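Section 3.1: Structural characterization of target chains.
Under the original work plan, the team committed to producing a structural model for every single-chain target entering the pipeline before any wet-lab resources were allocated. The record below documents one such target. The sequence was received from the expression subgroup and is listed exactly as submitted; it comprises 414 residues.
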Amino acid sequence: MKKILFLVIIAFSATSFSQKKITDTIFSKKLNEKREIFISLPPSYEKNKSQKYPILVLLDGDFLFSAFNGALSYGYYWDDLPEVIIVGINQNNTREADCAVNAETGLPEEKGTQFFEFIGIELIPQIEKNYRVAPFKIVSGLDVTAGFLNLYLYKDQPIFNAYISFSPELPFEMEKNLPQRLATIQQPIFYYHCTADGDLKKMRTRILTMDEEIKKINKPTLNYKFEDFKDASHYSVVLHAIPSALYQIFSVYQPISMTEFQEKIVKLPSGYAEYLKQKYELLEKSLGLKLQIRLNDFRAIEAAILKNNALNEFDELAQLAEKNYPKSMLADYHMGMMYEKKGDYAKASKTYLRAFQREEIGDLTKDMMYEKSEEMKRLSPKKGKKGEVIEETPVEENPTEAPTETPTEEKKPE
């Protein structure tokens, strides 16, 4: 019975973080035909009415949709990847015509021109009209469609922010033209492409040449990654590459990990609360996502402040807590911690008692705040009738290094 219950719980958890596939059609004036598309809305889409989500457009959506949907659902579960709106274009039996390019110019021609305009002029505006889309757009494809999607980078103002190109079949001289465009484009671009030793030699040679050229570009606005997978076929490369590409593009989204905590945050001489603030400002600027600061990230910064004895920074951290969790006891807890570690037990007691009167959050409970308040009272110096101190408890010179909870690589969301 217990085993059955466990399996039911696991199945329910996986379902609650998965995205459901919606099949729809859109009439294209450019193509003069109806096109089938697949749409997947984030698990929180109906609950969080104010949230906007990045959009992932999949060429070859008939077979890439499920692969991306599974990887993203797993990432949502661990809060490692943001929720996105997935839009897959069914190109079964049409991909070659959809991606037609001129053999001498490498530019779209015939139906390829119409399909190119269909995506930018009809499909994306329609999705933006019907759904809450953040200003961050990703596109992906395999071989023929992977080479075709690169053509959007030839435009003066590319409509996509991130490009995932699996084993691209490159149009004429793209290995030379695309690096030149990436070096010229001013807006921030995420670019991921890959190949495998199972790809055709002719394809691999051109892909590797393009990689060498792109690596020569040195500019902060280009976030570039290339991978050459061993013991992989042309088709299996997709399953190898999807997680890598997603984690490259959404690295700024991830919670503070133990590695980030130890190698970046703790080593700072100061500015721990500011680091947390800038982390989420960068997230909003890069991905268009305005998110509440995670509780675990607050606790990580708390640990860094204590470890470096930067007690005054609790004041700024408390301000962030008040802004993100205004009804909770988190802000008062941080201020109480500051007074406690400074040895001002009277103020600490009052602040913990104020925290007691607010809502619990995470592992911070009313019982904990009451006990902390009483403990601070016992540590406070007693005074005589005229206010003179008649008993005093020594103050610790070195505060506790870290709270019981520190950042972890894997933290199941609440």
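The beta strands are 21-28, 33-40, 53-58, 85-89, 133-142, 162-166, 189-198, 222-233, 382-383, 389-391.
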